[in-house]
Amino acid sequence: MEDKTPETPQEEIKYATPMQRLWAWVGVVYMVILVLLSTYALSHGAYLRGIGGLMVAPALCGLGASTILRYRQGKGRGGVLPCVLIAGASFMLALAGVVKGVSAVLVQL
User: Fold this and answer.
1) Cβ-based neighbours of 47, under 8 Å, separated by 6 or more
2) b/e string for 82-96 if b means 16 or more Cβ within 10 A?
3) Those residues with Cβ within 8 angstroms of residue 75's Cβ, 6 or more apart along the chain or in another chain
4) Which residues lie closer than 8 Å to 30 by C-beta, 6 or more apart?
5) Tens-of-pLDDT digits for all 109 residues of the chain?
């Protein structure tokens, strides 16, 4: 006997773009940070203070990396100078935020 199952058209697999992967990883970093902050708050009865720079750092790194990705894909406007300025400023601000945030966390531990 022949198998008479109706043929279903197979859907094509659509992979995520590098930009989507980048921001997915930024989201993963935020979820890890939020889990750690919630765990700390539940165990100590108080939230950490002064960690705003630490919370903004993943988004700033994502912005800098997005700028680089857009330039490499040919979608960035203005050439290499704005790319370097925006990415450099984003990474420097993220680094400053991490340094300030880590010192605030260490004081409270």
Assistant:
1) 37, 40, 41
2) ebeebbeebbebbee
3) none
4) 58
5) 566 666 667 788 889 999 999 999 999 999 999 999 999 999 988 888 989 999 999 999 999 999 999 999 888 788 899 999 999 999 999 999 999 999 998 998 8
The runs of H, that is alpha helices, within the chain are 18-44, 52-73, 80-108
Please state, in angstroms and rounded to a whole number, the distance separating the CA atoms of residues 58 and 100: 14
pTM for this entry: 0.80
**Six-digit token string for 36:** 């750690």
Cα Rg of the chain, angstroms: 21
Domain ranges of the chain: 19-108
Token pair 């165990």 in the structure block, residue: 43
